Amino acid sequence: MTQFGRALLALNIDIICANSPQAKGRIERTFGTLQDRMVKELRLAGVSSMAAANEWLPGFITAYNARFGRDPANAKDLHRPLAPADDLDEILAWREERSVTRNLTLHYDRMMLLLDPTPLTRGLVRKQVEVVNYPDVGFAVQFNGTALGFKVFDKIQTVQPGAIVDNKRLSAVLEQIKAQQAAYPARQQRGHVARQRPPNNLEAPGLPSKGRAPRHGAAAAVARDGSPLYLVT
Question: How many alpha carbons fall within 13 Å on the CB side of residue 37?
């Protein structure tokens, strides 16, 4: 079931599908108006912000209905008032189901939600709970309509530079780590000569291989002794 269908079911509203070509064409014409005509009208009116669009919209609706509106065959108003038990904030919120792990955690929108360890949440291991995403006030975790306490662990949270600069203990910790690394043997120190791999002709063409003297150095030594030079190919 879609989110729209779930909301209509909660409000006890039946969906009447457009199964005829005439009905489909009528709704498609409306979509074309909202996606094309209204956009051009906004541009002609010089509207460039959401607040200005909200002020301009009632006049557009009045003019559009006066031009294209038709009187219904039955003038009786069949809209029913909203029931006191109908909470539109809860019904129209985005709801998704998630499974609770043994560690009382669940994943939602690249975040890990840590449920508070209570007698109720301990019994929800491997069960489905609902994550309710409200448009304006964040989200909540519910089980059969009961709100559950939780904490948020952001998987992609980044550290701000100000938080590092304001940490007065950071320099002391770095100095301690540097002193510990300096006390390591040479073979365990990062960047030490003893840990560097000697180059070879395959990885660095033109450089001598391990255990072999440079060719130009050997040639220069022979030339100083007065011995003839040989070219090896």
Answer: 11
CA angle 166, 167, 172 (to 5 degrees): 135
What value does the mean pLDDT take over residues 183-211?
A: 59
Residue 221 predicted with pLDDT over 50? no
CA quadruple 149, 153, 155, 160: dihedral sign: positive
Determine the residue type at 9. L
Judge residue 6's burial from the number of C-beta atoms within 10 Å of its C-beta, 0-12 exposed, 13-18 middle, 19 or more buried: middle
Write out the two tokens for 203.
Answer: 């990885």
- Whole-model pTM: value is 0.50
The strand pair at 150-154 and 111-115 is best described as antiparallel
Identify the three-state secondary structure at position 193.
helix
Q: How far apart are CA 131 and CA 158, in angstroms?
A: 24
Any idea what the Cα angle at residue 192 is, between residues 191 and 196, rounded to 5°?
80
Give the integer Cα–Cα distance in Å for 93 and 48: 29
Residue 59 region, left (φ>0) first, then alpha (ψ -120 to 50), else beta? Answer: alpha
Name the residue with higher pLDDT: 145 or 169: 145
Q: What one-character-per-residue DSSP string does 139-169 give? A: EEEEETTEEE-EEEEETT----HHHHHT-TT
Lowest mean pLDDT among 18-27, 29-38, 118-127, 224-233: 224-233
